[in-house]
Amino acid sequence: MSKNENTNLNITLKNEEASQEVIVTFSGIFHKLKKYFMLWFMIAIVIGILVLVIGIINKNSPRTPVATLVSFTYDGVEKGKAPDGSKFDYNTLKSPLIIQAALDELSYDLELVENIRAGIAIEGRIPADAIDRITTYKNVYETAASVSAAQAMLDTTWYPTQYTVKLDYSALKISRAEAATILNTMMDCYRDWFFERYGFNEALGEAVATLDYTNYDYAEAVDMFDDTLSSLASYISSLSASDSSRFRSTETGYTFADLKKGISSIRELDLDILSSFISVNNVTKDKDRLLAYYEYRIENLSREQVIYEEELATIAESIAQYEKDQIIVFSDGTQGMNSQFTEASEQYDKMISQKISVQSTLSSTKQRINYYKDRILALKTKHVGATDKVERVEADLAKLSERINEMIDVVNRTADDYYENVSLANSYSILVPATASVAASSFSAVRSIIIPAFVLECLLVVLYVCVALFEAVVEQYNKNRRKAAAAEAADAVDAEIVSCADEDDDADEDEKSAKSRKKDK
After folding, report:
1. How many CB atoms lie within 10 A of CB 241?
2. By three-state DSSP, how is residue 250 classified?
3. pTM passes above 0.70
4. How confident is the model at residue 379 (pLDDT cuts 50, 70, 90)?
5. Residue 382 phi, psi (nearest 5)
6. What is the per-residue pLDDT for 275?
7. 400 touches 277 (CB < 8 A)
8. Separation of alpha carbons 514 and 521, rounded Å
9. Span 152-164, mean pLDDT?
10. Can you give the pLDDT at residue 57?
11. Distance from the Cα of residue 194 to its chain's centroid
12. Facing residues of 72 across strands?
């Protein structure tokens, strides 16, 4: 190929009269691109600047809400569950209690609570991996071979784990910086509320600490302390069951095992010794009232005993009738023998655990009934304790109450430390705080308009190329037309010359013929 040869682009133009093929060279197109390059470049720069300025102005406009992004990462959130297993309500992010706590911390007027709540919008986000998984499930569902497999796909539902919280502050008559501060403080207050709500310890501590043993008889006070310690022991056992790291609190220095030993020590030493002293010496404030209390307790526990016995019988019957999962192992031998055995399922194990728990509770109930019957017999057959014994019991109760309150405080602080730093350490986090800085807003605006600006610039490039191609085609088409017209004109001149030559030849022939005739004559 010679240097003057170019790669050509063939374009066929058609009209009602005829069609014409226009050959456009890439050098011709490049020439047109070069011709309009500066115009396109200037327009692209101007449009890019305008889009950027409009985005920044809109981002910092009072009509544009401030926003923050928060995330929840505990087990069950993707199924719409709260840490305690209940349904998770994301609207608690804008609860009046949260807003009020934030305004109190910032010393704002509490009259803004409803206006702020009305200006908050919450948008949920489903993680990208969950979306991919849902899409995969959909594809599997469309090709599922069985109805059960298809139904399993339909049962897969995902809930947002991230939420964008936006605050429209246009009606609040505050600056953007103040709106961002209020929103960030709200999210911090929500963290405190979240740990208090799902830490499971504050309600227990408050309920126990509010009881005043002085309003009860001595034996009743002992029962109240025993119930309190039982609740604390059960609570610590539940925490210990979910702890796999042998947690030791940096706040109190205790592990859950240490707390269980401390509670057991109070019950087995202080409480049992005091209870025995009260029982042996019949120490009471009102004998008749105490007898009525014991009789009521026996009646109440007897009803509970019947309930536990019926529940235990039902569980035992269910276990007896339950069919365990069967596993068949196919033999690869020549005798065709298969091995078959049963394996306890998860549901079977749960029923066994329920049976053990109910049996334990039933045994404890029977023991309490026998204890109250013995106390009634002692009160009816023995004299009431003397004044010195009453004073000793009251002093011991005061010491015991102080120790129990100290134990409640230690349990609460240890549980707080556990939930905030282990169990719920990363369950709630603020991924992107609200901001009002010009630099951050400008960066956010640039980031948010990158795709629209890129699409607009691509369209401008396409338009630029199309204009250059159109100009090249039109120019080549006009050249072809001019060449065709010139060729037609040349052909017409040649035809006229040929016609004149033919006429001259005819004239010469006529003249020659005339001369020949004269000569003949």
Report:
1. 9
2. coil
3. no
4. confident
5. -120, 160
6. 86
7. no
8. 11
9. 71
10. 62
11. 15
12. 428
Residue type at position 49: I
pLDDT digits (tens, 9 = 90+) for 413-469: 888 888 778 877 778 889 889 887 544 454 555 556 667 777 777 887 888 778 777
Write the CB contacts of 373 (distance below 8 Å, at least 6 apart in sequence): 298
Q: How remote is the C-alpha of 455 from its chain's centroid?
A: 31
Q: Which residue has the higher pLDDT, 275 or 48?
A: 275
Q: What is the mean pLDDT of residues 374-384?
A: 79
**Contact by Cβ (8 Å): 397, 213:** yes
Q: What is the 3-state secondary structure (H, E, C) of 257-319?
A: HHHHHHHHHHHHHHHHHHHHHHHHHCCCCCHHHHHHHHHHHHHHHHHHHHHHHHHHHHHHHHH
| Exposure letters 406-445 (e unless 16+ CB within 10 A, then b) | ebbebbbbbbbbbbbeebbeebbebeebbbbeeeebeebb
CB burial of 57-88 (b: ≥16 within 10 Å; e: otherwise) equals: eebbeeebbbbbbbbbebeebbeeebbeeeeb
**Residue in the block written with tokens 């304790």:** 385
Number of H helices, E strands in the chain: 14, 8
- Residue 103 is predicted with a pLDDT of 93
* Amino acid present at 333: G
